[in-house]
Specification:
Number of strands: 9
Number of helices: 3
Distance between the termini: 33 Å
Strand order of the largest sheet: 1-3-2-4
Radius of gyration: 24 Å
Largest sheet: 4 strands, antiparallel
């Protein structure tokens, strides 16, 4: 999926259903990390358009919404190490009990490449996304796929509602912090993943680590 240019003003026609889905999230996030004014315009024929920082044409019914930059949620903390209880908490049985399972080791980062500092480039764009239920994460994809959230139908059949995550590009000055958070999120996912899923997460962790070590992020403290 190609990445769209962020921060451009545009007039985009949307259906009433799509706009209602965005309202259900509490705000329509801007493509720039700063406050914006969003206008919802309905013309005489009932067609709906959404536009940034530009009032509706004359003769249209206008609704105005002011949105702010997405809040930053602290990254998830890694789980506490698996420590055995004190010896006094054990009761001697007929034989020695099984040893506690060891906690998974941290993914091994690749060896850093030797790159001249003058040849380093900034990291690729990265985005902060907010879910419909208020959670936050970072992503390399500005338009994640929607999720179908199950609805309460009172026991009559099954139904779900499509929920969209709203993403905004992290500014250049904070991009390295965004990539470091991405690295921590991958490690946290790896720790709780099934054994069959860990090799792919190990490769993803190594790829993100190379981006940090080969870009200008390596020059930051």
């Amino acid at each position: 999926m190609s990445k769209r240019r962020m921060g451009m003003r545009a007039t985009v026609p949307v259906s009433a259903f799509a706009f209602a889905a965005m309202l259900a999230l509490g705000s329509v996030a801007p493509l720039r990390v700063q406050a914006q004014v969003i206008y919802r315009c309905t013309d005489a024929s009932g067609a709906v358009t959404i536009q940034n920082d530009r009032p509706c044409p004359a003769g249209s019914r206008q609704e105005v919404r002011r949105v702010q930059s997405l809040p930053t949620v602290p990254p998830p903390q890694p789980p506490a190490p698996n420590r055995p209880p004190p010896a006094g908490d054990f009761v001697q049985a007929a034989g020695p009990g099984p040893e506690p399972a060891a906690a998974p080791e941290r993914p091994v980062p690749p060896e850093p490449a030797h790159i001249d500092d003058a040849a380093r480039l900034p990291p690729p764009p990265i985005f902060q996304c907010e879910t419909w239920d208020g959670d936050s994460y970072v992503s390399e994809d500005p338009s994640p796929k929607p999720r179908c959230v199950r609805l309460d139908t009172g026991g009559v059949g099954e139904a779900c509602e499509m929920k969209y995550d709203i993403c905004a590009r992290i500014g250049d000055n904070a991009a390295c912090d965004g990539w470091r958070r991405r690295q921590r999120e991958i490690e946290s996912t790896w720790r709780h993943a099934r054994a069959a899923d860990r090799p792919a997460l190990q490769e993803e962790f190594a790829r993100v680590t190379r981006i940090l070590s080969d870009s200008t992020c390596a020059l930051q403290p």
